Amino acid sequence: MKSEIRTPLILGLAILAGVIILSLSLSLLDSKSQQIPGNTSDEPKTSNYEQKISKLGYKKAPDLVGISGYINTLPDELQNKIHNHVVLYDIWTYSCINCVRTLPFITAWDEKYSDQGLLIIGIHTPEFEFEKDIENVKLAVKKYGIHYPVVLDNDRKTWNAFENNYWPRKYIADQEGYIRYDHIGEGGYQETEKIIQDLLKERNESLGLNASSAKEFVKIDEFESSWLRTPELYFGYDFVSGRNQLGSPEGFKPNQDVTYSIPESKQLHSFYLDGTWKNLSGSMKLVSDSGSIVVPYSGQEVNIVTSGDAVLKIRIDGKDIDPSKYGKDVDKGQIHVHEPGLYNIVKTNSSENHTLELFVETPGFEIFTFTFG
């Protein structure tokens, strides 16, 4: 290579190498300056969680609005508690079997994490009229060992503020009020508890607290519903749009007293009535001196939501119910219903097909729904 070409080439390569070395040096210095502890810049200090978590896209939990009653708390007291707490909002109603099955987990989380910054608020949004009575809700709160605040959302204003359509539903908001988790229905308990743990850790770091959060999960046997089960059966004419499962030929007749009959041929997942029953918007009420309900069903558990004081005699497949199939509310082959609410009639170890018969001899007995597990 000629000298007049070699000299400029060597000079150019030397300049390029110098630029690369200088660029790498400046980048390394900049990286080290960001990692120096005790940075004396005017920018506010933030925790590791605050540095890497963006709240962009998260909604804030709405205010509790239209509340008609408070249990285990007072309005001002509850509002003060929400501030700087991780808040689990549980939308439920006490006659909903799916809601009831979640309560052992929720009450256990309250006991385990309330001292670490978790606040649980039960938003009781009723499905039926009798669930609007605060005395009935207080009985349920006591029955299920609920010690956290419960508010009565009788007009569904808070339900609507959350844009909710389901029972049960759990929302978890962080200490700044942003909703960070949303779960519909039963299940997902370990996933939910992990979110609680993570948000408590985030809260405590942001507040400069040294409180440690538990790592293990609550250990409770989870109810596993059968996939082959009868859907919920509603007796009120307002609830049966698109899901009419009344098999008696007389059908629904709003606000009328109807004398029903039971046909010889019956279909699975339908219900049949005998006697005279008044058709109400949310239920049916026995008018005659006696009556019966027949339900060919599939499932491992049968529950009933009722109102009125009555004794129900139970038969399965034309025989008195066997003790091996007793639900927890059955005694000597019958159930005494008194307080309005949920009663467990049948419980077996696996899904089975049977025909359930209920006999009642008390006018005024009111039935709202059957649910199956």
Question: Can you give a write-up of this model?
Answer:
The chain has 373 residues and is α+β, with helices and mostly antiparallel strands. Helix content is 25%, strand content 28%. The protein is built from 7 helices and 16 strands. It has helices at 3-34, 48-52, 75-82, 97-113, 134-143, 157-161, 189-206, and strands at residues 69-71, 86-92, 118-124, 150-152, 169-173, 179-184, 233-234, 257-260, 272-279, 284-286, 291-307, 310-316, 319-320, 334-337, 341-360, 366-372. Strands 7, 8, 9, 10, 11, 12, 13, 14, 15 and 16 form a 10-stranded antiparallel sheet that branches. A hairpin with a 2-residue loop joins β12 (310-316) and β13 (319-320). The longest helix has 32 residues, at 3-34. Residues 1-11 and 19-51 have low confidence and may be disordered.
Question: What oligomeric assembly is this protein in?
Answer: single chain
Percentage of residues assigned to helices: 25-40%
Q: Any idea what the shape is?
A: elongated
Structural class: alpha+beta
Question: How many alpha or pi helices?
Answer: 7
The SSE order reads: HHEHEHEHEHEEHEEEEEEEEEE
- The unreliable regions are 1-11, 19-51
Number of strands: 16
Briefly characterize the structure.
By secondary structure, this protein is of the alpha+beta class. It is built from seven helices and 16 strands.
